[in-house]
Specification:
Radius of gyration: 30 Å
CATH superfamily of the largest domain: Immunoglobulins
Number of domains: 2
Distance between the termini: 85 Å
CATH architecture of the largest domain: Sandwich
Oligomer: single chain
Length: about 190
């Protein structure tokens, strides 16, 4: 421990002597910010400018709960809140294809675990709504499933990635294990209600 302290003292002393040779005042520690050398004032600090928000993205599931083998409908709305025309925007919906399948992809192209839409232009003040639907194919180990939407495009590269994405969580409901087929249970309930 004492050796470490002595090493720190020696290193500090060497740095102070080295600085003293260059600055003319050996009693001062070396400067960490060379911009202040010779009494010069530093330039004005740079102001942080947040990237301009060009689009707003909303993801709206039509339901917040689903049973296994049920469907979930979504609307993804993209609004140009900027002042210029946005071109060649790609909207992408990513999902876990082990548990979800696409029932209806709207005008998007469907691949393994994503739906992609190419939007040629969005004028200032205009919004575009994309609709699509998933089916929950199996019982999932987690009580929630998440899907995420992303926006890409040269016009959007200055925006933060968090402002170009939206996620939603859907709660998966499950019936207690009864050993009876779900259709029989529902028929029995409907006969009681008649």
């Amino acid at each position: 421990m004492i050796g470490l302290f002595l090493a720190a003292v020696i290193i500090f002393g060497v740095l102070a002597l080295q600085y003293g040779k260059n600055s003319g005042d050996p009693s001062l520690p070396p400067r960490l910010f060379p911009a202040f050398e010779n009494g010069e004032d530093a330039e004005e600090p740079m102001e942080f400018v947040a990237p301009e928000t060009l689009v707003e993205l909303w993801k709206s599931p039509r339901t917040i709960e689903v049973f296994p083998h049920g469907t979930i409908q979504y609307a993804l709305t993209i609004k140009n809140v900027g002042t210029r025309l946005l071109q060649n925007i790609v909207a992408e919906e990513r999902f876990d294809d082990a548990i979800l399948s696409v029932v209806q992809g709207g005008s998007g192209s469907v691949s393994e675990n994503r739906i992609a839409w190419n939007i040629e232009t969005i004028s200032p003040g205009e919004d575009v709504t994309l609709q699509y639907e998933f089916r929950l194919e199996k019982i999932v180990p987690s009580p929630r499933i998440q899907t995420t939407s992303y926006l890409f495009g040269d016009d959007l590269m200055d925006m933060t990635s968090s402002s170009r994405m939206a996620s939603s969580n859907i709660t998966v409901l499950s019936l207690p294990e009864s050993g009876v087929e779900l259709g029989l249970v529902l028929r029995w309930i409907s006969t009681l209600l008649e």
